[in-house]
Amino acid sequence: MNNQQLLNIASRLGNSMQRNGAETYRIEDSIARVLSALGANDINVFVINSCIMLSMSNEDKEVVSEIRRCREKSTDLYKIDKLNSLCRKICTERMSYYEIIEEIDRIEMQRTYPFIVKLLAFAIISGAFTYLFGGGLYEVLAACVIGLLVYPLVYITEKLKTGIFFKNIIASGAIALLTLLFSAYLYTIKVDTVIIGTFMNLVPGVALATSMRDIIAGDLISGKNTLTEAVIIAVGMALGSGIVMATLAGVL
Fold this sequence. Notes:
By secondary structure, this protein is mainly α. It has ten helices and three strands, in the order H-H-E-E-E-H-H-H-H-H-H-H-H. The protein is elongated.
């Protein structure tokens, strides 16, 4: 393989891992191992939350480099597992450039769960956490119904790419509004328990865990960036629900 093909494999692989929520150290280690297995020398990889920078040299000591931005991020552990398996396969078997690119394309093209499955999961998680936090039958039912009504809104904001801050303001405000309306006009429930239980769908648990792992591993820039992202999500949730509850709590 020539240098451009090696860089394309490494950047495509790393970018796909980053877009699906892999940790910084995992991306750097995977890229370095793959390039080394394919015959590259003097490999340098630097990854932050939104960018991958890498350089390498060939037998003629010619240094080449590439920078690839990551503008969209999600969490898909299934794809991360498949990409990890591909990395191990590249390191242990002889694969051509086109075979590797085809495999990356195949993994990236795999569909996530359909809308209806995500909708039901959102509702079930809302009810389960509400029960875990001490809610009764009516609280659990209310949380499930509210989850069914709120997830389409979350889905639309994600498609419109409103950003994590505004997405969580809108979603948390809708959760608080629907909970207050449910309690005022249908059945008296523990408002705080239902809101907190439904909020668990929005809590940035993965981001917090990833940031701690990056910081412990020494990737301070990525760790602090991810932690900042988690704080922004939490602030958005607090603002959305706080505005609605402050406005309507005395009315309903």
